[in-house]
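Schema walkthrough. Field components (list of strings):
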Amino acid sequence: MILARVVGTVVATRKDPRLEGKKLLVLKPVSPEGKDESGYVVAVDTVGAGFRETVLAVAGSSARMAEGCKDKPVDTAIVGIVDTVSMDQKR
Amino acid sequence: MYLGRIVGRLWATMKNENLTGQRLLVVQPVTPELEDKGKCIVCTDWTGAGAGEVVYWSRAREASYAFFPEEVVTDATIVGIVDSLHVKRT
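Field assembly_structure (string):
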C-alpha cells in the first residue's frame, strides 16, 4: 500500500455505470515523513476520507477487494485514514 | 518477491472491515546488499516481524493470499523474515 494525501476530487457524469455513487479523490503520494512524492493518483474512496487527510491506498487488482469495489473497474482504492505513522529513529 | 527492512509502523482506526486486526508496517525496500532502494511502502504482516528486521514481501493480488481464505485488502504483505543472505556477484 502507499501513503497519500487527499488533494482533490474528481466529478465525472459520463463514466462507467459501475462507478456511480463512488467518490473519486485525487491523491498525492507522500513519504512516511510527509514529504510529497512524484505523481498523482485518482482513487475510489471507501472510508470517507476528507480533504488533506493522509490515507492508505491499495493499488492493482487488490483494490477490487476494498469495500463496495467488487467487480468494479477500480485499480486504486482508499482503504484507511492514517492516525499515526511512527518511524524508527535510526533511519 | 522483494527484500525490505521494517522501518516503522502505522495505525489507522478508520479503515476497511477486513483490515481490522492487521499489523501495518512501513517497509523500506532494500537491495541484496541491504542498501535502501526506492520508496517506502506499507505492508500487512503475516509473520509478526519486529522493527528493524530484514524481511521479504510479496506484491499485488498475491499479497492477500497469505491470509487465504480470509479476504484482506492488501497489495503488499510481509511473508518471510530473512535469517541470512548470500549474494555471489562474479
